[in-house]
## 1
Amino acid sequence: MRISALVTSITIIMIVFFLFREGVGIFKSPSVEKGYVIAVNKSNAVETLNSTQLKNIYDQEITNWKTLGGKSQEITVFRVEDITNYYSEEELGANMEYLPAKISEVLAKTPGMIAFFPSTYLVKNFKGKVLPLKNISVANFLGGTEWFPTAQPSAQFGAWPLILGTLYVSLIAILLALPLGLATAVYLAEIADKRTRNFLKPVIELLAGIPSVVYGFFGLVVIVPILKNTFHLDSGQSGLAGGILLAIMALPTIITVSEDALHNTPNAMREASLAMGASKWQTICRIVVPYSSSGITAAAILGIGRAMGETMAVLMVTGNAAVVPHSIFEPLRTIPATIAAELGEAPQGGLHYQALFTLGCILFIMTVSANLMAGYISKKKRLA
Amino acid sequence: MHKIETKEINLHYGNFHALKGINLVAKENTVTALIGPSGCGKSTYLRLFNRMNDLIDNVEISGQVLVDGEDIYGRKVQVDDLRKKVGMVFQKPNPFPKSIYENVAYGLRVNGINDKKFIEERVVSSLEQAALWEEVKDKLNKSAFELSGGQQQRLCIARALAVQPSVLLMDEPASALDPLSTSKIEELIHTLKKDYTIIIVTHNMQQAGRVSDYTAFFYMGTLVEFNETKIIFTNPKNIQTQNYITGRFG
């Protein structure tokens, strides 16, 4: 017994440790993939760039070095493939063997140029200035609103839409599932006769065993079209669809756990209340439910945990758009869905890979704080 | 008119005949003790008076139970109202998971009383009546579970008194308590007798002798003997009663 407890604890600690070790790594590296450099003309006064600035330059949203603290000069964007605009194929050689030297040359010739190319093309007497790049900051990661993990030259890791998406979906789910689940639990534990209870309880427990992909299908085929038609949306795939689906998925847990808690309320409590002339409803609301509040809190925590961590079903119905959602009818994307969808494409050890681990850390912190909050609330309530 | 009266009460739990034709009267402001071996039906009988047996499935009752001359199983009777008139104290102390104050106030609140001042006065007077006020007056907002078992039981009595019943049913109220707490409860029963009609189920012969004016001896669902406590304990007419009281069985 002690050994299994020990093994479990060590496993949990190891998971957390591993998660955070991998996840924190991203803040030690710049947003440009390893093996590539950003270089500018030597006369350029700009010393460093961060990922957002880089992206804006390459999206041509920033077109003058003045915006970035340099001289007033047009920015010329350069990618490796642009080299053919400056030199003919003969000049570059049959096997492009002169390419590195030519990059160096064109950079030296063009004062406003910024170049992005693999570091293997960096010649010995490079005539440009390689820009040292800023590391990805925590604030940028958490607060950034753009998630383009594979963008070139600079990946954009703005987790804010994903965090918000997760919160949205979980909040909708728990707001729907908790009252409904609690009401069902009260019905089962206090009102339903034995036969109804013996029939309904196994059915509800069966719901917990349905694979989430199946729920996803259900959501896609039933909930999404209903939402689309009811609210006249372009697409029913939305945060609301995810929330509803998650609520359905969290219901069995919430019902069974809180029903158990309600059922375990000593009969002496009910009898005492009824003997005071309280009605059945008063007894349920004022005695039975408060008495089992810790069990109900546990049910809520498990429900929230399931909602936040659920991956597949949400991936299938939320529309998967990594944008900041402005209403519950818009498509969004959650953290677990992002991890599941992108991990397969992310090269191991790369920037993208690490970013997904960081997302995992954020999710972990979110669930833990939800648990702590629920515990705090129920503790406060019990004292009152 | 008697405060409490039962006429030819028969009660079945499914096929089990638990009470067999019980006739009994209790006068106002007296204490009636129900004694008898386990399973004799005394607790079932007690629970007739506030209709707690209603909570159990498959119970069939025939006969009449009169409180203040009114048949409490009649059609017009509101069970909630009946239970306000007939309070109950249970075997094990069962305070609610609330503060001491809220435990006593509970009965008032569920009856729709919101007047703060009124509730406060009633809480204080109930706790005083239950001889608990001095011990808890400084910690009314503490959880009731912080009290000792004996204090909890007196709290349950105070809770029952708060709705001002006229009858108090006690189901072995001291059986889970230590001797000191037990004697406090017994003293309390003595003082409460002035204002309430009390029916108490007890396993403890001495307790029945100490606190009650009348004693009813139950055996196998029948009322074997009912008389003044003095007579039951000194000169029982029935041989079974005599055997039980002298400890030969039970």
## 2
Amino acid sequence: MYTNFFLDIKKFGIPVSIQEYLTFLECLQNNLSEFEIEKFYFLARATLVKHEKFFDIFDQIFSSNFNGYEKINVKAIIDKMELPNEWLEKLAEKLLTKDQMNEIKSLGSFEKLMETLKKRLEEQKGRHQGGNKWVGTAGTSPFGAYGYNPEGVRIGQQESRHKKAVKVWDKRIFKNLDENSEIGTRSMKIALKRLRMWARNGLDEEFDLDNTIASTARSGFLDIKTRPEKENAVKIIIFFDVGGSMDAYVSKIQELFSAARSAFKHIEYYYFHNCLYEGVWKNNSRRWEEQISTFDLIHKFNKDYKCIFVGDAAMSPYEIEMVGGANEHYNNESGRTWLERARSQWPNNIWINPTHEDYWQYTQSTLMLQEIFDNRMVPLTLNGLDEGMKLLN
Amino acid sequence: MQFNNTENYITTEDLEMAVNAAINLEKPLLIKGEPGTGKTELAKQVALKLGLELFEWNIKSTTKAHQGLYEYDAVSRLRDSQLGDKKVNDIKNYINKGTIWMAFSSEERAVLLIDEIDKADIEFPNDLLHELDKMKFLVYETGEIISAKKRPIIIITSNNEKELPDAFLRRCFFHYIQFPDQETLAKIINVHFPKIKNNLLQSALEIFFEIREVPGLKKKPSTSEILDWIKLLLVEDIPVSDLKKDPKDMLPILYGALLKNEQDVQLFEKLAFINRNR
């Protein structure tokens, strides 16, 4: 019944599975929504949407799927539906006065009854704009008895209900939550997890069962041994390209950075522009005042470090090959020299490129860097990261 | 079993729906929302309202999934074996029940609160999938299978520090506690301080929502902050006239209860300074 609604939700990118849809139907079967459209909305949201950033899209989908339902009017239903006679008679009893009933009965035709009823229903609707329950409440009305609960279809009191119900999803109160930047870091963290080397460092905090048993047996009294807890001992040094053509990838790089920060304990990061030269920096607003010599870094961080460059590799070929080719300052040694120095110091290295892999071949500098890095260049996608982590291991 | 407004906890209709759906279908309910909007309090109130026992499991960054199930105390068993204690022969004596086990073994239906699940390791929720779904688990040491006598009402809170895995989310109902609007907030305050004067409440709320509107705040004050603040105002017996002093004086009286961050206080001082010079 709600398949289209469900498919719409899926189509617009809200992660939802059949399992959740079945849960939703089960809730409806257990009559949790009590045939009220507002409760129905809350129920659908609680079962089908699992992140507040999707609430806004959900509200819109809900609105386009269900707003029509409230506009169904009595006439349309009576025209469409084959209504059982006793139902109509009961309804007529409620709506028409005794005299009117007798009058119709004297006319003796069922068509007449129908016609009068239709007219009456429409009149009623016009007069009772305030939303009185003129067909009776959910439990007692003939509608309800027939299994066609007016609470669900909202026959007759659409006006007032309509106003109230629409408030909730058409208000779109969750609009701001839509632009959450955390999207995707989880999958990145999972990819970075491949790069784990467990080692025991630091304080003896973990109980070492095997060792305790062994030494207890040896010494004849209880001799408890502890050992340091395992931790990820991978050491990473990352160089980020900033500014210029990299601006387009800022949000993607931020995700990578925050994922990397939480995945690795020992992580060093520095910034450069376009290509690696004699100086890098840690603070972008003071990049000229607080430059750190690349040479010092090469001496400071030993071969254990795994080295990652992140950049779009798009620059003029001179910036790589020529002395004095850098576009912001005069460099005494070419970019290639510096890159090769870094690569020989940290043999485990990769270049992560946020541009799409298909475009690499059109940029000469990208091809040159690929050659310098022995093809250890990967795109900034989950597959690329996976591959990169394998190269680093 | 139906959950709705309690004496000291104001709910919204969508929250009630989510809680009742979770109770009815016996699935966990995941609660998110700004800090201080009453996520943890919800579980306590559900337990109170329905008259059920509450089991709390507070998650830390070092918490492991199995700690909620049980822990095998090998050290004391070793020690007892040294002393020749008879207890040693039965491994059951050294298995300490965790919170989940206790909730499962409760004769009556219970409420199980797993607080701040996002604090733990990224794989933590995945390790609990089966336990929360089937509500049973195996005690490896004794080969015993523990299953819930009555499926507890499980309420899980998260502060959004980490994304939760999809497989985990699929098994939960989800609710995001919106920051209450002025009307609901007034109701909430009235529940906590029934004797508060209406004009004090109104002007306090006005100031409070103004502060929340200030762009660039590190930590927006939320429900628990305004409750603290109003408590202070009442204890110090501050008259309403003092609240509405000079509009140019940006920092509200007793602001310490509302602004928890020195950068935020500085921001306000700066704004006050700019306003004064106008």
